[in-house]
């Protein structure tokens, strides 16, 4: 309810630029949250997650150019592409872990980047794609910032609910078990590769849904959206927000994008601020901003109980 109230207030009070900025935070936060399923609950650190997000964004943009911007079709295209890339990546990495998994996801992600960068006739190459038709839902055209922001908010809430449901389901519990005790889980009859593969599919579908909306909010999609540096940025956002918290992904993306957007207007060395916050988070808040807020709320509840 608090999230819905916040989205409604922002939609009424914020201007065009800030609504698009908030929509970008929600979309990137949704993609980071899907990465949290792999990193926070599966212990699978990936440097190829941007490939899932960016491939879906390109697929949605190309589909919109040729077939129009019907919202359900665009979302379906993004989800299908994100899940398809995740399936291909998952088939290769499910039996690896730690450093080998990191390197494999990096290589697979860069293969996607090479395709996007050199397939100029379809993707626009280094120039990317612009001038996309607006999204539409029935008779409504979703081209202005306010409906796009509300759409991004609804997507974030739906993705957060789906991620929580996945974590609470038997498959999610098995994923956590495979991270903590892989040998014992195998001895109990669980197929760890199958668990990881299904998790990749869910994470890819969520990232794909976020990627499908991204070109229409950002009004552009370029090859940097599939580059490994975006995957590294997502990991930084996740650590700042809190690994394993799900909703912390939105906090991390908000902090990073706010620094990138506002501090970069005053200095080209805005990444120093990101690095400082990252180091302070690791040293002082090992569970991220979400963990710090939970701890603060717990202390406040205990204090109220003592006063009562």
TrEMBL record:
Q: Does the keyword Kinase apply?
A: no
Give the superkingdom in one word. Answer: Bacteria
**What GO molecular function terms would the record report?**
branched-chain amino acid transmembrane transporter activity
**CC annotations in GO:** plasma membrane
Q: Which cellular compartments is it found in?
A: Cell membrane
Q: What is its main location?
A: membrane
Keywords, A to Z?
Cell membrane, Membrane, Transmembrane, Transmembrane helix
Task: Kindly indicate whether the keyword Membrane belongs to this entry.
Answer: yes
Q: How does it sit in the membrane?
A: Multi-pass membrane protein
Q: Where are the transmembrane segments?
A: 38-59, 71-93, 99-119, 140-163, 195-216, 228-250, 270-293
Q: Which InterPro entries has this protein been placed in?
A: ABC_transp_permease, LivM-like
**Protein's recorded name:** Branched-chain amino acid transport system permease protein
